[in-house]
Structures are given as C-alpha cells and as structure tokens.
Amino acid sequence: MTDNVDALRIGELESRLNDISVAVSHGDFTRAITLAGQALAQGFEHPALYSLRALGHEQAGALEASLEDLHRAAELAPEDYTVFNSIGLCLMQMGRLTDAFLAFGEAVRVGPGFAPAWFNLGRALEQLGRLTEAEEAC
Which tens digits make up the pLDDT trace of 44-68? Predict the structure, then answer.
C-alpha cells in the first residue's frame, strides 16, 4: 500500500513540476511561482519548488524568506551551482558581501564552467575591495 501511495505522490509531483515548466516556458513566472508555493504548502519537496518560491519572495522584497528557501534548495540539490549563485545574488542584495563571496565560491567549485558565477564572484571581490582577485575571477 505504501508503495502505491509513494508512486501516486511522485506522479503528482511530476505533474506539478510539468505544469510549472509549461508556465515558465510561456514566460508566466507569476503562475509558476504560485504553483510552486501551492505544491510546497501541500507537502511536496523539490529544489525547483523552493527556488521558484524564493524568486516570489525576492520580488515581494522578503529577502530573508527568499534566502531560507534557497538554502533548502541547496540542501536538496547540493550539486546545483545555479542555486549557490542565486544564494550569492540574494546575499549581495542584502549587503552581506562576504557571505555572497562564499556562496559564489561554492557555485564556482560545484560548476566551474558556469560563467555567471565567475562574473558574480568577481563583482563580490570588487565590492570587497579585493581588486586583483576580482580581475583574476572575471
């Protein structure tokens, strides 16, 4: 019985993720964020759901809530360099430059080919006054 319930739950999560993907592909981020929030409220967990809800929090100016969701996404997907890059961007908006530098460093470590993380690492270093290192990162 538990296997059937788990399979149904997985199927429902996949269906929700598909609906969110369709919304994103049509540029309807408001709908995607809403769907992600609804899925999380119903007990589903997936890094994409947390990342989208974080975007909604960010748009509403709730950066602490955004950061919490991004950290949960990173726990669920520790090899997703885009999540660490997003954490760094959120921290930069909050004025937490040293923490942002560390997050971008993690993004570069996990995804060394992800150019936006290198650029953002350079920006953080520049804002920290570490210009020589910033030039090397960019």
Answer: 999 999 999 999 999 999 999 999 9
Q: Tokens in use for 119?
A: 């650029």
Side chain identity at residue 19, one-letter code: D
In contact, 38 and 30? CB cutoff 8 Å:
no
Q: What is the pLDDT of residues 79-113, one digit of tens each?
A: 999 999 999 999 999 999 999 999 999 999 999 99
Polymer length of the chain: 138
- Cβ atoms of 51 and 86 within 8 Å: the answer is yes
Who contacts 37 (Cβ-Cβ below 8 Å, separation ≥6)?
A: 52, 53, 56
Distance CA 44, CA 55 (A): 18
Q: Do residues 134 and 122 make contact, with C-beta atoms less than 8 angstroms apart?
A: yes
The CA distance from 105 to 115, in Å, is: 12
